[in-house]
């Protein structure tokens, strides 16, 4: 790597750097306003005011009511809470025993659905997806039927590996019409797509702050009023009895600040990233032979560009890119390094051998056109080098 060149970070779907404004908003809540928001004294009440403000800011941005926001430790907890909390409550209340989801969900949803099937006796229906990773409405309709046995439907908004966006509002309308709750994992969509819960007609939606320049380990679950819900984490009566545990006040203040900033920037930033992403996709497809774009061509979140590069393995590619000062990913952060082919690529019909060459670039605020030019200059050389030194039969 040229030592004078700053590293180019293109792995924003894994995590993002925290914004200075977010850090500054959080700082007083570690040392000055350190109270427990459940305490009655003034120091505690000060922290509670911060929680109320954060809840209202987030609710307003979603078109929701403050009491519909439950603070969590991030996307994984929000997904777990939505699936377990709603499925168990709906089974208890009305005997609904089936969960419907897609095979391209993040493991936070998918492994939770498997656990509910394998250890709690739920039936599981996995909806088919097409080669772009999109669910067809008629398949949702067929799977839901009259809805009487369905505990919940969970379909993610934007996919973390291939960037594909689901027709969520249409799925929402369908579920709403039949009276079945719909959860969406909006972790990759937050700050990139509008998240008005009434337009989307979702009943539960999970979000994580570290994907939009907020702190790690904090997020929220939107839970529509009236949605049956059985708390997963029990203890004190925090968060309206839906999630026990003293709230992470500085984290929640940072989450609200980061979400407000991301929403304010969203229209122009989505447009800017879209252009950079297209420059990257066009350049890679043109410059390198044997490359396939994975995911949807148009129904794609603004910042994700993902590819299969024939004849190379992602690990070598990522190391080569890293040495050249470019941080990219091979799919989801948890799948990288595990050597197991991605379940998302498998679901869209990519054979396991080919899936070894998966490469994901996810763009963010600091990226500029010259970063993309540098990638387009560097990546073909790395691919040629790997292909010539270690040919892999793919
Ligand atoms: N859902 C999706 C789509 C994600 O991309 C991630 C993180 O990569 C998660 C859930 C998990 O979120 P967290 O890291 O906050 O637990």
SSE layout and pairings?
Elements: E1 8-9, H1 20-26, H2 28-31, H3 42-62, E2 69-72, H4 75-94, E3 98-101, H5 107-120, E4 123-126, H6 137-144, E5 150-154, H7 168-178, E6 182-185, H8 197-200, E7 204-208, E8 219-223, H9 249-287, E9 291-293, E10 304-309, H10 314-323, E11 326-327, H11 343-347, H12 352-355, E12 358-362, H13 369-389
Parallel strand pairs: 1-11, 3-4, 3-5, 5-6, 6-7
Antiparallel strand pairs: 2-8, 7-8, 9-10, 10-12
The protein binds pyridoxal-5'-phosphate.
Pyridoxal-5'-phosphate binds at residues 74-76, 79, 106, 108, 156, 160, 185, 187-188, 208, 219, 332-333.
Main traits of this protein?
about 400 residues; alpha/beta; three-stranded antiparallel sheet; binds pyridoxal-5'-phosphate; 12 strands
Describe this structure in words.
- There is one protein chain.
- With 394 residues, the chain is of the alpha/beta class.
- The protein is 43% helix and 12% strand.
- The protein has helices at residues 20-26, 28-31, 42-62, 75-94, 107-120, 137-144, 168-178, 197-200, 249-287, 314-323, 343-347, 352-355, 369-389; strands at residues 8-9, 69-72, 98-101, 123-126, 150-154, 182-185, 204-208, 219-223, 291-293, 304-309, 326-327, 358-362.
- The strands form 3 sheets. Strands 2-8-7-6-5-3-4 form a 7-stranded mixed β-sheet, sandwiched between helices. Strands 9-10-12 form a 3-stranded antiparallel β-sheet. The protein has a two-stranded parallel ribbon with strand order 1-11.
- Helix 1 (20-26) packs antiparallel against helix 9, helix 6 (137-144) runs parallel beside helix 7 and helix 10 (314-323) crosses helix 13.
- Residues 74-76, 79, 106, 108, 156, 160, 185, 187-188, 208, 219, 332-333 line the site of pyridoxal-5'-phosphate.
């Amino acid at each position: 790597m040229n030592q004078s060149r700053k590293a180019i970070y293109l792995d924003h779907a894994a995590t993002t750097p925290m914004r200075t404004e977010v850090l500054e908003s959080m700082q007083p809540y570690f040392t000055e306003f350190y109270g427990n928001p459940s305490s009655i004294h003034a120091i505690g009440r000060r922290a509670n005011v911060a929680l109320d403000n954060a809840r209202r800011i987030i609710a307003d941005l979603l078109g929701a009511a403050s009491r519909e926001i439950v603070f969590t430790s991030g996307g994984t907890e929000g997904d777990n809470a939505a699936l377990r909390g709603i499925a168990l409550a709906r089974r208890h209340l009305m005997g609904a025993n089936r969960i419907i989801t897609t095979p391209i969900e993040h493991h936070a949803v998918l492994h939770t659905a498997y656990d509910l099937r394998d250890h709690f006796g739920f039936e599981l229906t996995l909806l088919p997806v097409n080669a772009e990773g999109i669910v067809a409405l008629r398949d949702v309709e067929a799977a839901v039927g009259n809805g009487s046995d369905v505990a919940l439907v969970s379909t993610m908004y934007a996919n973390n590996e291939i960037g594909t966006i689901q027709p969520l509002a249409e799925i929402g309308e369908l579920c709403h019409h039949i009276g079945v709750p719909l959860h969406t994992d909006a972790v990759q969509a937050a700050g990139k797509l509008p998240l008005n819960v009434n337009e989307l007609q979702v009943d539960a939606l999970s979000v994580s702050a570290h994907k939009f320049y907020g702190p790690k380990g904090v997020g929220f679950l939107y839970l529509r009023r009236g949605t049956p819900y059985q708390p997963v984490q029990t203890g004190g009566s925090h968060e309206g009895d839906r999630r026990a545990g003293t709230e992470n006040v500085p984290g929640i203040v940072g989450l609200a600040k980061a979400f407000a900033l991301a929403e304010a920037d969203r229209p122009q930033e989505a447009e800017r990233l879209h252009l950079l992403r297209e420059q990257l996709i066009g350049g890679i497809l043109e410059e390198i032979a044997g490359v396939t774009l994975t995911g949807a061509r148009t129904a794609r979140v603004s910042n994700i560009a993902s590819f299969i590069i024939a004849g190379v393995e992602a690990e070598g590619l990522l190391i080569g890119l890293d040495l050249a000062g470019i941080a990219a990913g091979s799919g989801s952060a948890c799948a990288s390094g595990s050597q197991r082919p991605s379940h998302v690529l498998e679901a869209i019909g990519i054979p396991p051998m080919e899936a070894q060459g998966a490469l994901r670039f996810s763009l963010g605020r600091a990226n500029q056109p010259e970063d993309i030019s540098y990638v387009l200059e560097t990546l073909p050389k790395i691919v040629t080098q790997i292909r010539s030194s270690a040919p892999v039969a793919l």
